[in-house]
Specification:
single chain; alpha+beta; six-stranded antiparallel sheet; five-stranded antiparallel sheet
Length: 303
């Protein structure tokens, strides 16, 4: 499902804009077999109860999280990445590379058939969407501009993934993958798992994925929890913007404009409210129009 994107975002036709995995064409890969039913997709009510709003919007509604403001974009730990909705194994850190796009990128799935390719003809382009085999979770898109040995770049949303470190592979039912990371696996078969576009590149660089979601960085106040309950807000993360205590808000601009977000935030904040750290000229103009204090943005550091 495509969002009602602002005109500016519609011009970012570089890659991983997304859509719902429902009603998609036939897959490019054959099914893995009946034994893979242990990763079957839960009912929607169960997913809504277990996933965060951001995880649900990405995996079940095809949204794309903002670049450089997601859990695994700069992750360098060894381990396995599994579907946050079903627990199905998807990617290995051994196939990960730095794409510079602000999203985790991989040269290939952890094994054939785990990630399914589907044609995406949205926005007047033909691209390749990727979803998980067992649950149909939207993951991102794949491109043919990656490094050796495959030449492919799987541009993946962090919100679609759950990370399992090598020390937890056997305990969490992924023993068959343990040997890849130098871990001695148990002899028993893996148990059922209980869990689970890009920045505009400079001229000449690789295309990325156009985000359907956006980020706001706001000074922290005593009532930040009010934002988390606002329709259109998918995640609120505490941290610091320089020395200033702040929050990172992930929101859906098709449901909540930046000005509306500022109004809700300022109404819950102290008087005078803490500063706004605009992520671009449009946010800066909106903050100034609302007569809110504005400071230059620096890299946000999560707690």
């Amino acid at each position: 499902m495509m969002r009602n994107l602002p005109i500016g975002l519609l011009l970012l036709l570089g890659a991983c804009t997304s859509r719902s995995p429902d009603a998609l064409p036939a897959t490019d890969h054959a099914p893995l077999g009946a034994a893979d039913g242990r990763y079957a997709k839960p009912a929607e009510a169960d997913l809504r109860a277990r996933l965060t709003p951001l995880q649900f919007e990405v995996t079940q509604r095809g949204a794309t999280e903002p670049p450089f403001h997601n859990e695994f974009w700069n992750d360098h730990d060894a381990g396995l990445y599994v579907d946050v909705a079903t627990g199905e194994p998807l990617f290995s850190s051994q196939d990960r590379f730095e794409s510079g796009t602000g999203w985790p990128s991989f040269t290939r799935p952890v094994e054939d058939g785990r990630v399914v390719s589907r044609t995406d003809e949205t926005l007047g382009m033909v691209r390749t969407e990727v979803v998980s085999h067992a649950g149909g979770s939207h993951l991102g898109h794949v491109f043919d501009d990656g490094p050796p040995p495959t030449g492919m770049r799987y541009c993946i949303n962090s919100a679609a993934l759950r990370f399992v470190p090598p020390s937890q592979l056997v305990a969490q039912g992924y023993g068959t993958y343990a040997a890849r990371f130098g871990v001695v696996a148990a002899s028993s078969p893996p148990a059922a798992a209980t869990s689970n576009s890009c920045a505009v590149p400079p001229p000449g660089s690789k295309p990325g994925c156009s985000a359907t979601l956006e980020i706001a960085i706001l000074g922290s106040s005593a009532r930040d929890d009010r934002l988390a309950k606002t329709a259109g807000v998918l995640a609120v993360a505490p941290g610091y913007e320089g020395a200033q205590r702040a929050i990172e808000v992930t929101y859906d601009p098709s449901k909540l404009s930046f000005s509306q977000l500022l109004s809700t935030w300022a109404g819950a904040a102290a008087d005078p409210p803490p500063p706004v750290f605009p992520q671009g000229d449009a946010q800066k103009s909106a903050a100034l129009a609302s007569s809110l204090p504005v400071r230059d943005a620096v890299p946000f550091k999560r707690d």
